[in-house]
Design goal:
By secondary structure, the chain is α/β, with parallel strands linked by helices. Helices cover 44% and strands 22% of the residues.
């Protein structure tokens, strides 16, 4: 079995994979989600509970769509930083929003920001790529001020049929097939397997609590395929 099939890659391999697929990333997201991914990011941004003038961080920002949603909430007097370790993704994000968030390179496991320096931190469809989930969540909590929020938007695995049957067909067959059409079957075989090994909603909530977050909760949408977790940094 290949490393990709196991859903696990070394950090350098994950970075190289995202560099390779940066050009098709937005299109593939739209196709795979029937365009619903934007709505999910909007809900995640709402749960960050930002106000005009706030400062927010989007970790593993990719091509910047969630960072752009945060920008709409903090306004021109606020600031949003989108951080990622894939330069190719960051280039796409900068081209998409030259006057929006500030996009810069950063390692999610060692964020180069002062503690308590943001009002909220988010990650959209990137937490499952953290090589050390607990450390990544702890870093997000560290850089948020007391009373601020951490929000994690991620795909989860539904357990009950018939949705679980559809999910299996979608992720195990259709997504890898789309990856072959896009010219990178390894990347889109890694995706479903990375989702399968990612903690379920309760387990992820426990990770957030262990990171020092209070009032941790989550909502399920898209029939249970998408989970949006939120927690508050203890005062």
């Amino acid at each position: 079995m290949s490393t990709q099939a196991a859903g696990r890659l070394e950090e350098g391999q994950v970075r190289a994979m995202f560099d390779r697929i940066a050009g098709v990333y937005d299109t593939m997201n739209t196709v795979m989600t029937a365009g619903l991914d934007r709505r999910w990011r909007q809900r995640a941004a709402d749960l960050a509970q930002l106000s005009a003038g706030d400062r927010a961080l989007d970790v593993a920002t990719g091509t910047g769509d969630l960072a752009l949603e945060l920008c709409r909430r903090v306004g021109t007097e606020g600031e949003v930083v989108g951080a990622d370790f894939s330069e190719a993704m960051l280039e796409r994000a900068r081209a998409k929003a030259p006057h929006g968030p500030r996009f810069e390179w950063a390692d999610a496991l060692a964020l180069p920001y002062e503690s308590a320096s943001f009002d909220a931190a988010t990650v959209g469809f990137g937490a499952r790529n953290f090589s050390q989930l607990e450390r990544g969540v702890a870093e997000m909590a560290r850089v948020v001020r007391p009373g601020g929020r951490v929000v994690i938007l991620e795909i989860t695995t539904p357990r009950r049929p018939p949705l679980s049957w559809f999910y299996s067909v979608w992720f195990d067959r259709l997504v890898p097939g789309l990856g072959r059409l896009a010219g990178d079957p390894d990347a889109y075989s890694y995706l479903p397997n990375s989702v399968k090994r990612f903690p379920g909603p309760r387990a992820l909530a426990a990770v957030m609590s262990d990171a020092g977050l209070a009032r941790v909760g989550w909502l399920l949408t898209a029939g249970g395929i998408i989970a949006i977790h939120h927690g508050e940094v203890a005062r």
